[in-house]
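For the sake of transparency, this paper describes our internal protein records without simplification. Because each token names a local backbone shape, the row as a whole describes the fold. One such record is reproduced below, unchanged from the form in which we store it:
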Amino acid sequence: MSIREHLAAWVAAVVFFVIGAVWYGQFQTAWLAGIGKTLEGLTAEQGSSPLPYAIGFGAILVMCYSLSWLFGRMGVRGIGSGMLAGASIALGFLAAMLALNYGFESRGLGLWLINTGYALVGLTLAGGIIGGWKRAPA
């Protein structure tokens, strides 16, 4: 991978992560109800540990590097193509996997919509950033 591709993956990951802060801030009450916790209970469990945020950002970074690698192999170029590929991956893999898990875990549709919506928005925008970033000549 070129420096440009690394930079694109990191920028996409930061954007994806920031979207998560806004997304889950917006849907906090419904999300907490969906996971069966209160803000106080969650805070008591995690304290002020940065670990959930570090794990979350690491997972997003892996997704963005995976998108970059896939886009390079598939010849995805351009913002629109990147957004379409990111959305397709979010719906075709992540949304389906969450539905599979949530069905067996007896989790509600509302939680699935919140988590899937975040994956869809995040991967669509990350795909647009990575796809639209100028790649080094092949």
About this structure: The CA atoms of residues 98 and 115 lie 8 Å apart. The chain has one domain: 3-132. The longest helix spans residues 79-105.
